[in-house]
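Task: sequence design from structure.
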């Protein structure tokens, strides 16, 4: 049954991919992939909002044997329907602006891009003054419908947007019922098809599904009833959604995140809503996490903390003397040229006493010296937070082929040992990237749970051993993956060489004979 479901999902994704590519080709040549993806994803989201409000209002009116469209014909019901919609799902769309209504206009040649602009404006306006206002504010700003790249005039822009709307409608996909990351998958697919420059940008905020799944399973391993999860560099939000998928009651967990890039922040909010996360069940803030952490997140501790932060970026440690996130490390700060440990410290600060933290980082954090060595030593020796170091294969992420690792940290650990796993050789080769398979995830998780040595794969190191290594966490110091070569029989090799030389002499004589016959 599970296999049938997986096959159906794979087929569904394949169908979506081919149609996404057709959509992309409608815009290709007029703008970059990073630009046109905003229109495709924005319109997919608009369809989702339309589907959701129609289903919600229809369900609410079922007892009265009315549909949303029928009830709206009665003007006396307008106010009640609007209030019901905003209270229930956080927004309202007038039936004339629903996605299906736009499709009908396109099919009768009555659609203009102004219809969509009015619909978007009405959606956002409907939330003003409500609890969902912040979740919808500026949500469609990246979809510039006045962009000249869509066409020189309103007529050309309307024609092109109309084509994309019809292609999205042709997906025949009930976005409210999907159980895969629609926006994230669409984004990943489009970036994979297009420019390396856009891919590098994407790599900063989209974590491949299987890596996200591994992190999510790690932080939910000991607690399937999490109430909070946090990602300080949440990107498209796919990692938080994976955590949510791995808890028993998805309706009780609240997801917190912060994202610096406005476009990606919008994508994350769309992603949350498209995956059925109620607007009250996520809190995502837009700003630089290290320089301007969300005020409303200050003092909060989370049961699960996950992240794939941008690797070794610059930051400003100056002026952080009074910042509680970075105190407690013997007055040392992550170097200004590499913020990796600044993100780790920020995450530790927000980790609850019983929680689990899992973060993807470059291998340099395992062995670099100077202030990073001081911070690393403090985390291991003085605080005893480090629980595991997991080495991943190279070339898993967009825009970088470097091998990465996962650090797992806990404030309350079951023992004083640290698990080291070298999973760098277990993956599937892809055309542009490598992939972790389900069997690779299982291998890592089973080993991590067992906390028992596995030859050439895992070693459980004592803190004394780590101290002896100078708090250098380089995985080969703990996991020996050296494969001995079979001993060479010199006598056999010499005999083989003599035999080959004899055959060569025979061939030389035979060639010489033929040359004489030819008079050469």
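Answer:
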């Amino acid at each position: 049954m599970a296999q049938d479901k997986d096959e159906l999902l794979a087929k569904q994704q394949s169908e979506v991919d081919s149609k996404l590519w057709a959509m992309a080709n409608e815009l290709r040549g007029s703008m970059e992939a990073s630009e046109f993806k905003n229109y495709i994803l924005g319109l997919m989201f608009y369809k989702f909002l339309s589907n959701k409000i129609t289903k919600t209002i229809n369900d609410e009116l079922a007892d009265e044997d009315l549909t949303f469209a029928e009830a709206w014909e009665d003007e006396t019901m307008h106010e009640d329907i609007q209030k019901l919609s905003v209270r229930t799902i956080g927004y309202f769309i007038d039936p004339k602006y629903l996605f299906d209504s736009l499709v009908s206009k396109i099919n009768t040649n009555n659609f203009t891009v102004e219809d969509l602009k009015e619909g978007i404006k009405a959606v956002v306006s409907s939330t003003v003054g409500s609890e969902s206002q912040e979740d919808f504010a500026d949500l469609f700003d990246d979809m510039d419908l006045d962009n000249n790249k869509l066409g020189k005039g309103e007529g050309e822009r309307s024609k092109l947007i109309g084509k994309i709307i019809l292609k999205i409608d042709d997906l025949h996909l009930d976005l409210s019922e999907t159980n895969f990351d629609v926006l994230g998958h669409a984004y990943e697919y489009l970036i994979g098809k297009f420019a390396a420059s856009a891919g590098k940008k994407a790599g900063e905020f989209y974590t491949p599904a299987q890596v996200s799944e591994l992190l999510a399973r790690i932080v939910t391993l000991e607690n399937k009833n999490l109430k909070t999860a946090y990602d300080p560099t949440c990107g498209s939000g796919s990692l938080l959604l994976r955590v949510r998928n791995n808890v028993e009651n998805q309706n009780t967990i609240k997801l917190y995140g912060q994202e610096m890039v406005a476009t990606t922040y919008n994508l994350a909010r769309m992603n949350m809503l498209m995956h059925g996360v109620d607007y009250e069940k996520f809190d995502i803030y837009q700003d630089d996490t290290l320089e301007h952490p969300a005020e409303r997140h200050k003092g909060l501790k989370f049961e699960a903390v996950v992240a794939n932060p941008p690797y070794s970026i610059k930051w400003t440690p100056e002026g952080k003397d009074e910042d509680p996130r970075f105190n407690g490390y013997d007055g040392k700060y992550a170097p200004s040229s590499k913020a990796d440990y600044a993100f780790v410290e920020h995450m530790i600060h927000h980790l609850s006493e019983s929680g689990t933290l899992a973060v993807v980082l470059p291998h340099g954090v395992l062995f670099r010296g100077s202030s990073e060595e001081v911070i690393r030593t403090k985390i291991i020796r003085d605080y005893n937070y480090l629980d595991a170091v997991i080495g991943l294969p190279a070339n898993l992420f967009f825009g970088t082929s470097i091998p990465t690792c996962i650090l797992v940290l806990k404030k309350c650990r079951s023992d004083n040992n640290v698990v080291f796993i070298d999973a760098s050789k277990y993956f599937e080769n892809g055309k542009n990237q490598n992939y972790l398979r389900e069997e690779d995830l299982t291998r890592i998780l089973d080993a991590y749970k067992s906390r028992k040595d596995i030859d050439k794969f895992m070693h459980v190191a004592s803190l004394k051993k780590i101290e002896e290594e100078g708090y250098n966490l380089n995985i080969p110091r703990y996991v020996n993956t050296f494969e001995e070569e079979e001993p060479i029989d010199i006598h056999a090799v010499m005999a083989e060489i003599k035999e080959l030389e004899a055959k060569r002499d025979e061939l030389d004589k035979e060639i010489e004979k033929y040359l004489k016959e030819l008079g050469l």
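The longest strand covers residues 351-362.
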